[in-house]
Design a protein that fits this description.
Length: 294
């Protein structure tokens, strides 16, 4: 199985589009589709979704039809989507592996406190992957970043809380890396400057700005427009924040650290959007069944 960090990385050949307000949102079509599945489709007993629904959704988010179709085809080739044909219309659903990946990510997305870990607990990880295995190195780094790790120095990573590293690597299909790594539960000794190593391992100022961008964008509420488009964009924006912030301990940061505020904004906007998004999806599915698009 692939990991969320790897599959949600920017896919080649597809430009990010613009949001419903016309402003660039910087999300690739694949990231938007995963947000759509995780935010609206997952948990509902729905049939495969016609391609017309995806094309209309992505079009409203500034993605051209050709790019939308190319993304659906690419995700199918990568084993992320299953394609079935009903008459002239192509229908898609997540593969079991992709469904499991979205289900796991959704636990973090929906958590009321996604940035909190037991105080004083850390996980140290050391690994070595040959320089010649660049693709593997990229996958390992993407996986560790999504799991909350930051790099202290070459080959040495640290994450807040206690991370089940074996499960993280195995779930990502990186079993071979397990034999190239060692990891330990750790706690800092009294003279360790925790604030200093946090800033060495993570770009704290950039993480703060990522929270700030999210809060500024969504503070006033989900806004008007297509609820499916808005909830998809909300989820993609929130996943970007979750990827940036591993849950740095608040007591080692400034008093106005914005993580709790951005989590509250996400929960409020998602709750406001979900009922209308569910209704809109039901209408989309009904209309797509009567007007097939190949």
């Amino acid at each position: 199985m692939q990991d969320w960090g790897a599959v949600d990385a920017a896919e080649p050949g597809a430009d990010p589009g613009a949001g419903p307000d016309g402003q660039p949102h910087g999300h690739r079509p694949q990231a938007l589709l995963f947000s759509f599945f995780g935010g609206v489709v997952r948990g509902r007993d729905l049939p495969p979704v016609p391609s017309a629904v995806f094309i209309r959704l992505l079009s409203g988010l500034g993605v051209a039809e050709a790019a939308a179709r190319a993304t659906l085809a690419r995700m199918t080739r990568r084993g992320l989507l299953e394609r079935t044909q009903v008459g002239r219309a192509a229908h898609y659903r997540l593969t079991p592996d992709a469904e499991a990946l979205v289900r796991k990510a959704s636990l973090r997305v929906a958590s009321p406190a996604p940035f909190e870990h037991p105080d004083g607990e850390w996980t140290l990880l050391s690994y070595s992957v040959p320089e010649s295995r660049r693709d593997l190195r990229h996958r390992v780094r993407a996986t560790l970043t999504w799991a909350g790790f930051g790099g202290l120095r070459d080959g040495v990573w640290i994450a807040p809380g206690t991370v089940d590293v074996a499960a993280v690597l195995n779930d990502a299909g990186l079993d071979e890396v397990t034999g190239l790594a060692e990891w330990f539960a750790a706690s800092p000794m009294p003279d360790v400057r925790v604030q200093a190593f946090i800033r060495r391992a993570w770009p704290v100022d950039q993480i703060r700005e990522r929270h700030g961008e999210f809060i500024r964008t969504w503070w006033a509420g989900p806004g008007a427009g297509d609820p499916l488009g808005r909830i998809t964009l909300l989820g993609a924006d929130w996943l970007r924040v979750l990827r940036a912030d591993p849950g740095l301990p608040a007591r080692h940061l400034s008093a106005d650290w914005p993580a709790a505020q951005s989590a509250a904004v996400y929960r409020r906007c998602y709750s406001d959007l979900l009922p209308a998004a569910d209704r809109a999806l039901d209408l989309e599915l009904g209309s797509s069944m009567t007007s097939p698009t190949p």
